[in-house]
């Protein structure tokens, strides 16, 4: 923690953030993606980002991860400007092929620990095994990724990310490619893991239900170039089917529809359940 930084200070703070990509194949040099975004994330939150397809959710996650330099504004992590990736942030993606195919599940985690944390091999093995237990994939420790189901691959990727004991877990539609039953199971388990570890989670999803179920806060973005519409406190709406859950889900849906019908049209909403 930076000198002077308090536990109560936001772990992530974005101020007047503009994100873009250089475009070599169009008339203009840059394509604006995120515009004037200011928000903060407290330690231990599950901060969920929703918005229409292509609005810039992944881009924002990449910027928090330090993979994309802001055009203007800044992101601070524990009070320090983010300008490169670091072991304090770990990613889990939607893609099932995140693990090294030529290493076993255990070796994937041990390797990540040795490279990023430089800890002795036996210590890395012990740590890897404890996180495989936590995400309930320990029996697959000696298997190769091609021998696993999609759900097991996501569990293994989650175990690898958690084993790094990051300050923030950045999750980009981590359950988006799973069948409904496995997805629900992993949502429940992620909540349990979060309660046990207290890790701060920043998660992108297309699903309003998933956002309300998992999030303590949900940030709604508009279409590209994305503006932040609202950050909603969803911490009291964990239970599927409760009045709070339904009210917040309806509110989020109406926020997305209201703004998208005004600008880009309803077509993009097909991406938001
Ligand atoms: N490397 C890149 N170079 C140029 N443009 C990019 C690049 N990556 C993304 N974009 C553009 O930036 C915009 C935002 O993309 P991004 O992937 O952040 O959106 P998203 O909200 O995560 O989308 P989805 O919900 O469909 O996953 C899109 O218009 C996309 O085409």
Automatic annotation (TrEMBL):
**GO molecular function terms noted in the UniProt entry:** ATP binding
Q: Where are the transmembrane segments?
A: none
Keywords tagged on the record: ATP-binding, Lipoprotein, Nucleotide-binding, Transport
Q: Tell me which species this is from.
A: Dictyobacter formicarum
Q: Which Gene3D superfamilies match?
A: P-loop containing nucleotide triphosphate hydrolases
- Where do the ABC transporter domain residues begin and end? 12-248
Which residues are in coiled coils?
none
Output this protein's name: Sulfonate ABC transporter ATP-binding lipoprotein
